[in-house]
Amino acid sequence: MKKLTAIKTFGELKASGYQSKSIKDELRDNLVEKLKKKEALFDGIIGFADTVIPDIERAILSRHNINLLGLRGQAKTRIARLMVNLLDEYIPVVEGSELNDDPFAPLSRYARDLVAEKGDATPITWLHRGERYAEKLATPDVTVADLIGDVDPIKAANQKLSYSDERALHFGIIPRSNRCIFVINELPDLQSRIQVALFNILQEGDIQIRGFKLRMPLDIQFVFTANPEDYTNRGSIVTPLKDRIGSQILTHYPKDIETAKAITIQESKKDRDSGVEVTIPDAALTILEQIGFEARASEYIDSKSGVSARLSISAFENLASAAERRALINGETETFVRLTDFIGVVPAITGKVEMVYEGEQEGAAQVAQHLIGKAIRTIFPTYFPSPEKLKKKTESTIYQPVVDWFAAGNVLELNSDLSNKMYAAALDIVDGLEDIAKKQYPTANKTERLFLMEFILHGLAEYSRLSKDPVNKGARFGDLLGSVFEGMSGN
Questions:
Q1: pTM for this predicted structure
Q2: I need a labelling partner for 404 at 20 to 30 A (CA). Which of 180, 230, 370, 466 fits?
Q3: What are 224's strand-pairing partners?
Q4: Domain's final residue, options 383, 398, 432
């Protein structure tokens, strides 16, 4: 059989036996085949396999328009864009049509007249699925003319048309998305009167422009995205519009650290051509992901705003860059992430969280430091025995040599710009520190062991067994009791 895309006229198309179908049938039929073959769907979407993806598949099988409801950074728009992969590779359209007219059922005046005039000789072209996606961000300034269309006086004047002539219309983005997937992002931001203009399109499949008697059954797969309606006072989805959307699907943040890690690693920028190789210990990545979980539960952060996965992605990139910068300064070609490098993730946190009043009073940078400390405290017992036992005076623990070393008046200052050699030497002077890391992780390599050694210090500080004070470019660790007395004498 002749290759479809080689067909150039309507007559050839009919002779080939091609049968057109609606976009919802197209999505459904292709999904059915993929499900039968157990092919992977929505590649790159992690953490939704048992929740969101099955709901989307059910909505497509039901031929529904879809509303993806969830906080920011939950892959809503990406899911919508990936739906394009469920479309046929090519579809035929009447050549020159601005509405992607199906030659078997032309909608526009232009296409109807051309088919009537040329019949089987009507020229057709082929539209690739990659071109069958349109997206509009809902903003308060969006008008009905932008979405649906309006009378174009310039077109009417140039072509000497009456304003009552259909050919004087300028079609908006929705009609021009006929036979496509059309996405409206942040639907609640669309003014209520504009949302009303969508009623007929969703329910009847037609449009109305300036009172024109225009019956135009558009063939569109609508996907809307929205934050929960109580997120802000910007607006909401009007009830009759919600009623016309077939499926509302709730998205969510990663439910566990491992899923969050996989998303961050997949999405982060990894290309570094500076000649420095940066190693990121798994414990560092775990702590970094925990920052996002802590932020979503923090009393300083507005939970209705959400904490995007982009926080972890940006923090991961900053963390690697902090280590890379240090290596460049010290003339090293390889290095690894340290806990002192986490000072570099503060800018990635402060711009991505919306704070409540208490957070504003505390200050963005201070809240970021607080979240990092909370993450260290939460993760520490998953790597080492909990320091809580140290509070029992009669019970000695593996941390006692470290605590005693600081109790003897010793102080350790870790500068984030220390070379690899100087960093190792600084940690090695603390009695018992390396022994703990070796005992708990005997197979860890030198890089991992050094990270774990510093992790122990930060963990003990978060559990109030050591003092930790910020200093220029790093932190100073000391005896907690001595630090208290020093503070009292300073007063």
A1: 0.86
A2: 370
A3: 67, 184
A4: 383
